[in-house]
Amino acid sequence: MHRFSTALAVIIFVGVTVDPALGQEKQLIKVVAMGGTISHTVDGRPAFEQVISDIRENYPETTELLDSVHIEVVNVHSVASSSMSGDQILEIVRVVNKTIQEPEVRGVIVTHGTVVSEETAYFLHLLVKSNKPIVLTNSQRRHGTVGNDGDKNFLDSIRTVLSPESAGKGVLVVHNETINSAREVIKTSGRPGAFRSGEFGILGLAGRGVAFYRGPTRRHTINSEFDIDSITTLPKVEVISAYYDADPALIQAAVDAGVKGIVLSGFTSAGIPFRSQVPLLESLADKGLPIVLTARGGMNARIGPRSNDNFIGGDTLVAYKARLLLQLALTKTSDLKEIQRIFNEY
User: Fold this and answer.
1) pLDDT tens digit string along 285-305?
2) Which of 18, 75, 285, 291 satisfies CB 3.0 to 4.6 Å to 310 for a cystine?
3) Parallel, antiparallel, or unpaired: how do β-strands 178-181 and 171-175 relate?
């Protein structure tokens, strides 16, 4: 009997240096650039040093903020984020995690392509071991073009890193003067202001000043059990969607391809599959294959722990973020109850 009821990269490192000319202490910011629209112009993809130089030249009102920090840039990749691989995202995590440990570093900003900003931010949120501020930002419009939003996002990210309130809140995504938690933020369109956090809402605002109104309660960064130093590759996990007349052959194809787990983007709000998918999914779960249920409605629906079957409730995570958490969980355990605990806590 079926048991379903109907019921960017730029990393900015901040520490303190002394301006020889003025004898004043400055916040040190290192920038590790990962390409993306924020550093993309009509003429190509310049090094991020040029982007900062353009901001300083074109917006004189930014001089005070930029002069208050010392910025160094490390250009890592210059690729569209839609082409990034899991190995490249893990590389970003390793670089951030290593640099954030340096005593002189105050915090990190990651500038990134928008397409997979949420994935990179969430990996950082789960893997970087520090309470220091970590900010990811991006742009929906190319640098130097009408409507460009990346320059402002970058400046707001500096302000956010420098805010003492940013510490301990995990990875923050700054976009359109809003501060979002990496766990909840999703890209909703191709327009500026597209990064939103659903019913949970933003953590705070960044603009002329930085103000926080809430903080994340789930485990992250310094309190995370996951260790980037022990991860060389990520287990294969695929996402399957529920929709009318869904063919279970797609699930079998994923199994035949060697998946170690499946995330179902199921019907809202219970995360259930289409009826034709149920028998195979139940059989696989009973054999121990981790299958995480999420809702097509995204983080507005919660799929809690299940007591009548071997499926894993994905809580409020959207399917592609549940996939990332399942990949990390599988680097530690294949026990279904332990994986459910992880989803409960993160």
Assistant:
1) 999 999 999 999 888 899 999
2) 285
3) antiparallel
- Given 6, 17, 37, 178, the catalytic residue: 37
- For residue 97, what pLDDT is reported? 93
Annotated catalytic, 37? yes
Q: For residue 62, what are the contacts with CB-CB under 8 A and spacing of at least 6?
A: 55, 56, 155
> Is the CB of residue 30 less than 8 Å from the CB of residue 73?
yes
Containing 251, the helix (H) or strand (E) segment is helix 249-256
pLDDT tens readout for residues 19-29: 444 445 888 87
- What are the distances in angstroms from CA 16 to CA 102, 146, 157, 298? 12, 35, 17, 41
136, 174 Cβ separation under 8 angstroms: yes
Amino acid at 50: Q
Question: Which residues sit opposite 212 in a β-bridge?
Answer: 204
In one letter, which amino acid is 100? Answer: I
